[in-house]
Each structure stands twice: as structure tokens, then as C-alpha cells.
Amino acid sequence: MSRRSVEKAVGYVVHQRNLLVFTHDDFPMEVTGVQVPAGSIAEGESPGDAVVREVREETGLAVRIVRSLGVESYDMWPSKPEVHERHFFQLGLVDGDVPVRWKCGENDASNGGLPVSWTCWWMALRDAHVLCAGFGARLGGVGADDGL
Q1: What letter would DSSP give residue 81?
Q2: Taking every pair of C-alpha atoms in the chain, what is the biggest distance, in angstroms?
Q3: Which residue from 76, 50, 88 is spatially nearest to 133, judged by alpha carbons?
Q4: What is the pTM assigned to this prediction?
Q5: Are 22 and 11 in contact (CB under 8 A)?
């Protein structure tokens, strides 16, 4: 089966040696896993602009790009006939006053589906190897010299 290529932007928001992650509220963790903010890059949008937008839309947080961490391909088969070209970024918070855990969601899912909700929280960077679906592929590039 042929797979279409889809460009995505993935954000590692790092704060005090913790990584911003989320888990879906309405689906079992066995299906959705632990994720980081990510999403599709719109037509004419740069990967950097897309990651900042996606983090804001998915978590409500304003972020800035610390560095680009490169690109990885991830084959979504058999879940979807797509290969994601993922642009990874390390991000920092614009405002360091953030909750420990909070609820977010989308009422108008991009795939036209039902509203979805998730819980955002901070995971110790040292534990981030548990990220699902290749989302941890570029964690090794997160800078230890960034005052984390």
C-alpha cells in the first residue's frame, strides 16, 4: 500500500529538567500513549511557526524556539497510510509561571471527529524514554547547557 508523506512539527517544551507531555482523557493509554505537542504544518507555514502554534493550541502555553533538533521519518502504518516527516524542536516557556497539571482539548478536531480532551503535565526528562510512536526520537539533542 502506498503511503502519503505528511509534514509535522514536534515540540519538546523543557522547564526545570522536565518535559511537557500529555495523555488523552477519553482513550486508554495503551492506545494513545504519552505524547508531546505536535501537529501538521499548514501550507506555506514554516516548521518553526507550526510548532509554536501547535503548542499554544494544544496546551495554552506561549513558547519560544531554543533550537531545531532535526527531522525524522515515522511510518504510521498500520494505523494510517502515512509517513510523517517530523521536524523536532526544543522549546522554552515565555512565562515560567505554569501549572503542574492541567486539562486541555479540542472541540473541533482537525480530522472532523468528536471533541477530545487531554491532561498536560511535566515529566522528568530522564523518564521521557516512555514517549509513544517515535516522539522521543530527538530527545538526545535537548541541550544540557540550557539551564535546565
Answers
A1: S
A2: 47
A3: 76
A4: 0.91
A5: no
The grid coordinates of residue 20 equal: 511537557
CA 100, 88, 58, 135 torsion: positive or negative? negative
pLDDT tens digits, residue range 84-101?
A: 999 999 999 999 899 999
Beta-carbon contacts of 30 under 8 Å, excluding residues fewer than 6 positions away, are: none
Q: Output the nine-digit C-alpha cell for 49.
A: 511557526
Within 10 angstroms of residue 85's Cβ, the number of other Cβ atoms is 15
Tallying the residues shown for the chain, one arrives at 148
Question: What is the sign of the dihedral through the CA atoms of 66, 69, 71 and 73?
Answer: negative
Task: Return contacts of 84-87, CB within 8 angstroms, 24+ apart.
Answer: 84/6, 84/7, 84/8, 85/5, 85/6, 85/7, 85/8, 86/8, 86/9, 86/10, 86/38, 86/134, 86/137, 87/7, 87/8, 87/9, 87/10, 87/41, 87/47, 87/50, 87/51
Give whole-number Cα distances, 97 to 16, 43, 107, 146, in Å: 12, 33, 26, 18
Q: How confident is the model at residue 111 (pLDDT cuts 50, 70, 90)?
A: low
pLDDT tens, position by position, 11-55: 999 999 999 999 999 988 898 999 999 999 999 999 999 999 999
